[in-house]
Each structure stands twice: as C-alpha cells, then as structure tokens.
Amino acid sequence: MMRFTRHIRIQLLPGVNRLRRLQPAAREPCSLLIGQTPPEMTKSKTNALCYMCDQAATTGEHVPPRSFFPKSKRVNLWKVPSCEDHNNDNKMDVEYVRGVIATQLGTNATAQRVLEVSMRSWDYRPALFKRTFHDLEPVLINGKESGAFSFDLPRVKSVMSAVARALAYRDFGRQFMGKWRVLCATLGSRKPTPGWDKVRDLLTQASYDPIPTPVPDVFEYGIHRTKPVGFIYRLVFYGGFVVFAWPVLAKRESGGV
Fold first, then answer.
1. Using the 8-state DSSP alphabet, how is residue 73 labeled?
2. 142-198 pLDDT per residue, tens
3. In whole angstroms, how large is the CA radius of gyration of the chain?
4. Alpha helices in the chain (DSSP H)
5. Residue 204: what pLDDT?
C-alpha cells in the first residue's frame, strides 16, 4: 500500500489550471569526493544487445527518457542500445513519472516548464488528472496552503530502475539484468518507516563522484563505489528530486565493475 507523499502548492478548486507550484527551495550541495568517472560505453549499437534484455538492439533509448527534457534542451542527449520493447520514450509510465516529479517542491525552473506540458495533458484529459491526484488533500507548509498526494510507487520505481540500468550499461559497457533497489529519497511517508529512514540517512550521507551530464538542470548523477565491487547511483532530477538506485549483484555478475 503506497502512502508516499510530497507537496505541491494548489488552490483547492476544481480544474487543472488551479494547480501551481511553490518557488524552488535552496538545495544544499552534495559532497561528491570518491571514485573516478566510469569509462564510456564503446560497443557498436549494431553489435550490441538491448540494455534491458538479451534481444538484439534495433533502436536507441534516451537516458533519461527524452520526454523529461524540454524541447529546447534536447541536444546531445545520451542513448543506449535498446530493443523496441524497452524503448520507453513514449510509455505512459514515463509520462506519469515526469509529471509528478515536476510538481515537487525544491525542483527548479526547468521542472516548471515540464509541468506546463503535463498540465496541458491533464487539462485535455480530466480523468487522467483525477487518477493522478485521486487523494490530493490540503496541507500547510510553513503557514502556506499546499497539497499532498500519493505517488504510484511501483510505476516510479519501474522508470527509475530502467534509467539506472541504462546508465550502468553506458558507464560499464554491459548489462545489469538482475534486481535493482530504488529509494526515492525526496518522498515522505504518512506512516513511520524507521527502517527505510535509516537507509535513507546512510545513502544521503555517503559521498558520490559526480558524472558530467549534457543537461544538468534536467538530470545529474553521481556514483558511490561499495566494497568489494558494487556501486550506488545518486540521481537528481530537475535540481531537487533525489533517487538512489543500486543493483543487487549476484556473484557471477560482480566482475568488471
């Protein structure tokens, strides 16, 4: 049962055009000190397998998905080899995740531009808006009216694990097809989660080596190396939505990282 929430500023009246975001909050810089930038993937796409499965790559998947980027920023975006089934650019889950991330407090002006695209979609499809914010409720943040709603966490984790797998394919030149753990650190819970809060604190306090990205105001990330051969990604979307992701490596997968 998902009760993960975050806040958006709203006027509690019907209609998509009533939805408004708070101004971005200042974000403390993360100390990224260890590790080295992983090597570029050098495999030719014509000889490569899909980043997600054993099918031959017939197309390229943007990482993160292309729709996360405003049209004016779709330049020099990263791609990884993909089969048709795992090219997620136009999947409904990607559209959903892009939209709900863009509503979050602490995200930047680029998120506002992305949110405007989602709002047009919600305005055209009121039923979609109703499903997305089905349990929207008023809250006060520092004395100001805001709202809280539940994320569809399985959909968010599905998209984020695909992003992490694509990054790992790009960084290390091979697939990571096993299970991935995903923790959306920006989200809170309506119920106490002491176990996950401890994990969140440990992940947040770790140091991550920053990897340069083409459009950092849309997406930036860092990597933390764990002993003996593992790694953890810290993904940051629109300057403020933070996700941690790491593969659960089987022994046979642990070489070459």
1. G
2. 888 888 999 999 999 999 999 999 999 999 998 888 899 999 999 988 787 788 888
3. 18
4. 92-102, 109-124, 126-132, 153-172, 194-205
5. 95
Instruction: Classify 95 as helix, strand or coil.
Output: helix
Q: What is the pTM of this model?
A: 0.80
- Measured in whole angstroms, the distance separating CA 134 from the mean position of its chain's CA atoms is 22
Report the distance separating Cα 132 and Cα 127, nearest Å. 9
Contacts of 104 (CB under 8 A, 6+ apart): 6, 7, 8, 111, 186, 238, 240, 241
Range 188-194, long-range pairs (CB < 8 A, 24+ positions): 188/4, 188/5, 188/6, 189/3, 189/4, 189/5, 190/3, 190/5, 191/3
What does the pLDDT read at residue 178? 85
Q: Could you tell me if residue 248 is left (phi over 0), alpha (psi between -120 and 50 degrees) or otherwise beta?
A: beta
How long, in residues, is the chain? 257
Asked if 4 and 187 count as a contact pair (C-beta separation under 8 A), the reply is: yes
Q: Is 251 exposed, middle or buried (0-12, 13-18, 19+ CB in 10 A)?
A: exposed
